[in-house]
Amino acid sequence: MEQRTEYKRALDLLKTNQFTKFSKTKPKLKNYILYPYLDYKEKIYRISRFKEKDILKFVGDYSDTPLTQPLIEHWLRNLARRGHWKTFLRNYDKRKKPSRELECHHSYALYKKSSRKEGLEKAAQLWTVGFSQPKECDPVFYLLNSKGEITADRAWTRLGLSIKANERQLAKYLLRYIDQNRQKDAANYRLVHSRPSTIRNIENFSSDSPSNREVVLHGINRLSRTNPAIALKLMNEYRKKLKFKDNALEQTYRKIGISLARMAKDYELIESLPIKLRAHPDLVEARIRQSLRLKDWGNAIVLINLLPEEEKKSQKWRYWKARVLDFSGDPADRRIAHSIYQELSEVRSYYGFLSADIIGSPYNYQHQISDISFEETKKLENIPGIKRSLELFALGERSKARQEWYLAVSGFSETESKIASRLAIRWGWHKASIQTMIMTESWDNLDERFPTAYKDVFTKYARQKNLPVEWSLAVARQESAFMPDAKSRAGARGLMQLMPSTARLVAKGIGTSYSKNRRLLEIDLNIKLGTTYLRWMLDRYNNNRILASAAYNAGPGNVDKWINPQVPFDVWIEIIPFPETRNYVKNVLAFSAIYSYLLNQEAPLIYIAEKKEFESASSINTGSN
Question: Any idea which residues carry the catalytic annotation?
């Protein structure tokens, strides 16, 4: 504890530029497990004072830590700012995954000190992307332009990439580089991206130039997202007037077909597509889902047989093959279906549990319990990387702790990984346990893969909100793998990945207030708000976890639009328009079943009342639960 306090004090001295006092404190911590982090921080704060040999010595001394690569990145950036290009080039390859900033510095260094040709070639590659590059790229891009290397074709290519990436400001900026002959096409490119319906004016897109053909295909692709029938009609018209390349045409018809499969009420248009169906598995899958939505079981089985062999062997399509054959009046088909269900029921998965319900078999959880002694965990605890990781975890430095942990366990055997997972759980570090099992593909260690994290808190709020505790645990397991400091790119925070706007709405609804978004990383508050929102979704959807889970992920507005009581529950899940939500619902339901088993409750995957929200099961064998 004394060293831990002294370590924090040393870091504070660095942050406040008290380097003389730091220099006196640092030697006292030479034997502290986090000494490499102190050395690293000193070099980061005072990088210009260290020579090349000092940096390389650090890299050699601490190669078993995650600190070497960030230090090299920081050092190389500093060398670039100071114009030390020879040292920069000599050490650039030591950075395994250079940032975009570093890549631009490298391009400039090549031009200045090594090979002008190589430098400009790399600069051209860095320039020709669909996003804005950092300001560090400006010097080498200036050279690229001054040497006449931003050609009309290169500028057009980047314009197309930026528009397809929806980088509208960049696309506008690039217009200055477009040659006069393509200015109209460039304007049309931006127009059809923002207003796809303008592609209907065929006369305005009549030129048979490569650039206009590219614009037309982009417009058709954009329009097909919302109106695939009109997009198909227009594509057939344009095809008569313009000479499209076969592959580009095929891909456009494929995208139209996928949208038609999602929206169309019959097969008339989709079957008119001039396309080799078997060559596009994603279109075949979309058409299978269309057949399931239309309850055309015969067409579904024909399409399943068009899938590549590996896809046909997947649990998903084996299950649907069995479901479709189950409708047949032929006893032989139904025997095949039962045989498939039997095989799938041996697997711990969403489709395995569905199959078990259909044939009335118990779930096979395939639970493997590791016999790990206290002595084994103590021995592992003394490995330097693990010691550093646990000390960082104790200090609340979760991000750094994770980096140390994953680097340490990456070289572990399967047995060592299982011991490490058990150690992580003992420390209350559930994310590390889960990730370690994933890294070693130890799928059957359920205690480590599905820890009952923060069980008391989840149980407390589950009882208050009248929620199945296994379901709320399953949602948190899917959302964050029980990582309290989880933050998504979209802004969701904490264990249950709450968006700040949703959290504020829920907090207001229950009379709870909090001042800053960072409080959403607090375990109790996050679970309280998350379980309240789950309760709201259950209330909205008549206690149906299928719909409530989908709404938690995609929003109730989308789920309200997707509700279709005319199809069976498993069909409804399979045809959810958002692939992310589709997989989310399957995982949450399966995880909920696993948690019910681990909590000794043995709840079914789907309850009878939940199935009844969808088409009556009278004509379909969906099990008795």
Answer: 479
